[in-house]
Structures are given as structure tokens and as C-alpha cells.
Amino acid sequence: MKIFMGKVVFFLVIVFFSFSYYVSAQIFKYQDKDGKIHFTSDPNAIPEGGKILKAFETQEGNKNNPQEENLPDNYPPDMRPNLQVLQTVLQLYHATHTYSEPDFFVCADMAIDVWNMVKTKGINARIAAGNVNNPQADGTEFNHAWVVAEAAQRKWIALETTGGYLVSGKKNKNYYRGYFFASPRELKEYCDLYQKRSELIKRTQPLQKELEKFKDDYDRELKKYNNMVDDYNKKYAGRFFTLGQHQEAQACKENITQQGRMVKEFEGRGKQLSELINANIEELGTFEQTLDKSIETLPSN
């Protein structure tokens, strides 16, 4: 699945506006006294001890905003006001954050940020997890996270949070198929389970390789042990020995005993590995059942 980590780039841009219609609003990103990050459009709602980290300036309803020049004209009229808000929020976030690496969890972090910003504007939104390149992907192949917002009643638009742009259903229907979470908490619970599952797989795979090697070593040493026993029986079993032959037979028996101990050690380690792997596989099955959500498809334009 991808992790996305937002790295804030602080800069100041001064622009002069002269528009016929302009409504200004700000979204504040702040840190509470416990170190948690929040977003709000009301600075008075920031609790005591909270620290403003960034103030995002948005322009709502401004038809002359250059940021909105690429807004498609074929959207229904009832979607366009919120689409303008969403596009501005997206571009502002994208301009102040960098996409560090192709990882589901980094995507998820960025999607949560944008979801919070969209919700402060009073727009219903959900966080999506899916695969934007494979229309047949199942949950195990989901590797990306983004936001979908309800621009009008039952009319959704996808927000590509790492790219900073809107995606219509006509452009890519995969953005409207996947798992959809109503809140960051739901997504985080899913991500925590997903990460634990991924870590368990990473721990199990080396054990499986080690077990395969142990099996090869065990088979080799067991074959050697059996050959030693066969040779002893052919040469010494049921026979009378001279003193010299007796000493040879005793030495041979000692070698067989040592080889038997080695085989037992391989058996013990192999059994230990098998039990550990089986326990991990059983736990993975539990994770799979918990993570097995129904894939949804949202209506799009």
C-alpha cells in the first residue's frame, strides 16, 4: 500500500488583487498543547495553549482567480461554487507541502490534512483508499489515498491531495472506487491494522526462507545419518570383532551418535520455525478478515 509525509515549506507570496467579486476566508493550521495538529476557519476556536502554524488564505466565489481558470465548464451549476472552494484549498495545500516518497502512509497523512481543511469549509468529505491505476484491484492492491468531497448532493469530486488537483469521473473512474472513510480516526484505525499486517508479513517472509534452508540442511544431514547407519550395519552388525575391529566399530557408533544429535538439533529448530510461521499466518488471517471491507463505488461526473 503508499505513505505520504507532508513537509511544510514556509514562504511568503504577495499578490495584488482587483476583482469584481471577492470573499476572503482563512483556514488556520494549529498545534494544541498536546502536540496534535488541527485545522479551523475560526481563530477564536483555537484552545488556550494552541499555536498557529500556518494561515491559508482562500478566495471563494472569485471567477477571475487564475487558480480557477482550469475548472471544467461541464460540471453541473450546483457543483461549481464548492468546486471553486475545493480547488483553491487543494492548490494552497499543494503549494505549501511537498510529496516526499511513494508510500501509502504518506498519502494518508496528506489526505487527512486536506480532509480537515475541506470540513472547515462546511463541505462533506470522505477519505479514500484505493488503486487509481487498476480498476480491478482488490484491497490488498490498494496503494494510494486521497479525498472525495460532496460538491453537491450525491455529486462527488475527487481531490488528488498529493498532486493538488481535482479529478472527475470522466478522467479517471478509479478515484471513485475503493474504501471510503468518514473520518481520519477510521482511516487511522485501518492504517494501523494495515501497517501491523505489513510488518508481520515482513517478519514472516525471512522465517519462511530460513525454514526452507533448514529443510534442505535437515534432509542432507538426515541422509548422511541414514547412510552412516546403513554402512555400520553392513560392516559390523551380527559379527565377531577383533580388537582392532571393535575399536573401529565403537568409533563409527560415536560418529553416528554425533550425527544423530545434529539431526535432532535441525528437527528442533525446524519445528520452532514452523510453529512461529504458523502462528504468524493465523494472525495474518485475522488481519485479513478485519481489513476485508466492501469496495464501494461513488457516483461521479
Notable characteristics:
single chain, alpha+beta, three-stranded antiparallel beta sheet, disordered N terminus
For the sheet with most strands, the description reads:
6 strands, antiparallel
Q: Round the Cα radius of gyration to an integer and report it.
A: 32 Å
- Contiguous helical run count: 4
Work out the strand percent: 15-25%
The total beta strand count reads 11
Number of domains: 2
SSE order? EEEEHEHEEEEEHHE
Task: Trace the largest sheet across and list its strands.
Answer: 9-8-7-6-10-11
Structural class: alpha+beta
Low-confidence stretches: 1-24, 59-69
- Taken from the alpha-carbon principal axes, the silhouette is elongated
Bin the helical content. 40-55%
What's the average pLDDT? 81
State the distance separating the first and last CA atoms: 27 Å
